[in-house]
Amino acid sequence: MEIEERLRALLLQGLATDAAAYQQFLKQLSAHLRAFLRRRLVQRPDEVEDLVQETLLAIHNQRHTYRPDMPVTAWAHAIARYKLIDWLRSHRVKEALNDPLDDVSELFASSDSEAALAKRDLAQLLQTLPERQRLPIVHVKLEGLSVVETAQLTGMSESAVKVGVHRGLKALAAKIRGMA
Question: Which of 19, 45, 108, 139 sits CB 3.0–4.6 Å from 150 for a disulfide?
Fold first, then answer.
């Protein structure tokens, strides 16, 4: 239980206004939470760091609820579990609503003239989308940039880029269905 004692001592010092101890507490707790969440998100390792940060923020905001008679790790794990459950719920809903356009090549015709018309039509359709949907689709799906590169280029967050692509493709699919 060495980690428990070390974290508890650092947290109590931090709560008593020792900023250096509190920083050390957050640093050591983040490593502990990373391992805790990695075991629960084996299929989604890229999401672990975001959840660690969300959990640390929640712990910081709720530090006044810590009772010195309770184990720090149990308190932190409870907060981490709530964050994980929230994340799983939101992603389950998003994935259920996901209407992927797996074969983008279906948007483009095979002949040169048809391809030119299809590109023009796609460009016109894209212009009907809000910028927060249009730009992620253009950069990620048409230009082949990564989500990270697109986020840096547009000034949007990575999550906003992903959401923009998803919502934009869904809106385009609805517009195309409406034309048929």
Answer: 139
